[in-house]
Amino acid sequence: MSSSYTPDRPVSGGALLLLLVPLMLVSFIYTLDQTIVATTLPTIGRDFHSLSETSWVASAYLLTSAVSTLVFGKLGDMYGRKQIFQFALVVFLIGSALCAVAQNMPMLIFTRALQGIGGGGLGSLTQAIVGDLAPARSRSKYLAYVGIVATVSLVSGPLLGGVFADDLSWRWIFIINLPIGIIAMAIVASRLHLPVHRSEKSIDYPGAGVVTIFTASLLLVTVWGGDKYAWGSATIISLIVVAVLSLVGYVLIEARAAEAITPLRLFRGQVFGISFAQFGIATLVLFVPLLYIPEMREQVNGDSAFTAGLFVIPLMVGIVIGTMTCGQLIAKNGRYKMYPILGSILTGVPMFLISRFTASTPAVWLLLLLLVAGGGLGLLVQVALLAGQNDVAGGDLGVATGALNFSKTLGGAIGSALFGAILIAGLHHQAAPSVASYVHAYQNVFLWTVPFMVVSLVLGAAMREKPLSEEMIGVVEGKVEVPEY
């Protein structure tokens, strides 16, 4: 059966917005849990008398969520997205509740991993469900709403984590998920109606196992490299070799699998391949100002941690403006090719100018440049997801969205490790770096984002603009009817 159709009654904007409410709530909590624990790790470590293992509280979530975003995207295509979405949400909420009552560090790490399994599934399924509910032409503005919520939660996570740790308890960073998730679950159960599928084929277990090895080894490189082990150590080199070999093995398995988690046919489309790359690049570059602008303000300008953290707000505002503006314009004229090109320029130029800062640079200029860079990143992320979804068949919407989110996760992980190594190299052999040394080191960090934006610009210029579908999904008494694939 066809993956889409023209209904007797087209979707109303109000009905779609109502159905977006639970998706935005879920987007808020699963994205929040990627960053909210960062500022609470020292407190958690002191409570459990285990400071050496705190990094795994964050890494466990990233590892399992990276893999589950691929697996759950495929399961949604095979068995129907609503019930898989509900299962992922239940797993996430159970994991959150167990995290909140954890009595020791091993239990917290294990339950964070469980929480990440659900969180990764929610990441890909939320965006895929938006793809079910709206045609590509108007989908951009609805994806923008979900994307804005995710951006706000990503940036506000460290600030909220600090508030909870200082004024309440670190356990509240997990408790807050429960009422929000339950409300979302109730709305989804009563209002969202998507088809149920039955597939005679089984999930690609060998592929899932190998991609887990790849993700685990890569994340270990980013967590341990330059910290617990030197970058040239046998441990880090071995992990890199394992990551490369498992990636090659994953590609070979997916080429032969009957129900591949990441079908290689997705990458036969030039648009999807470019969207995949741009999503990863945009996330990689996003993490640079998100992580190092506050750190730079503390080290160079002597700001408090709270004041330094406020400098990411213009970045967030810019992303919101870029995402919303782009979404509305695409819905209006159906054209999107220009935005990745413009976004690469609007991000690359400010990052180059930020790389020229000195200790005496007025803060207002930094704030303005971050606002513009955020706008450029908003354009890039919005189009990468929309164009990537638009380039695949309806039956591949889940796996395509999962692959795009996996690229985002890899971009963040690689970016954190790469730019952390650049910063450490700039401060090498200095037991007590001076302000001038910090300035030079941070200049290098920000400057190295520019080549990535040049690559993004070239990819944007090379992307073919595939017409956006205008076929609509039907709504009957607020219940969405989506045909089977």
Write the topology of this structure.
Blueprint: H1 13-35, H2 41-48, H3 55-79, H4 81-100, H5 105-133, H6 136-167, H7 172-175, H8 177-191, H9 205-224, H10 234-256, H11 270-301, H12 305-309, H13 313-333, H14 338-354, H15 363-390, H16 397-426, H17 435-447, H18 449-462, E1 474-476, E2 479-481
Antiparallel strand pairs: 1-2
Helix pairs in contact: 1-5, 1-6, 1-8, 3-4, 3-5, 3-9, 3-16, 4-5, 4-8, 5-6, 5-16, 6-13, 6-15, 9-10, 9-16, 11-15, 11-16, 11-17, 11-18, 13-15, 14-15, 14-18, 15-16, 16-17
Give a description of the structure.
The chain has helices spanning 13-35, 41-48, 55-79, 81-100, 105-133, 136-167, 172-175, 177-191, 205-224, 234-256, 270-301, 305-309, 313-333, 338-354, 363-390, 397-426, 435-447, 449-462; strands at 474-476, 479-481. With 485 residues, it is mainly α. It folds into 3 domains: 1-201, Up-down Bundle (Growth Hormone, Chain: A); 205-257; 263-467, Up-down Bundle (Growth Hormone, Chain: A), CATH 1.20.1250.20. It has a two-stranded antiparallel ribbon with strand order 1-2. β1 (474-476) and β2 (479-481) form a beta hairpin. The longest helix is centred in the first third of the chain and has 32 residues, at 136-167. It starts with 12 loop residues before the first helix and ends with a strand.
The named CATH superfamily of the largest domain: MFS general substrate transporter like domains
Tell me the count of domains: 3
Q: What strand order characterises the main sheet?
A: 1-2
Indicate the CATH topology of the largest domain.
Growth Hormone, Chain: A
Give average pLDDT, whole number: 81
Helix content: over 70%
Based on secondary structure, the structural category is: mainly alpha
What general form does the structure show?
globular
- Largest β sheet strand count, sense and barrel closure: 2 strands, antiparallel
Number of helices: 18
Q: Strand-and-helix sequence, N→C?
A: HHHHHHHHHHHHHHHHHHEE
CATH class of the largest domain: Mainly Alpha
State the CATH architecture of the largest domain: Up-down Bundle
Q: What Rg do the Cα atoms give? A: 22 Å
Extended strand count: 2
- Residue windows where pLDDT falls under 50 for at least 5 positions: 1-11, 472-485
Distance N to C terminus: 6 Å
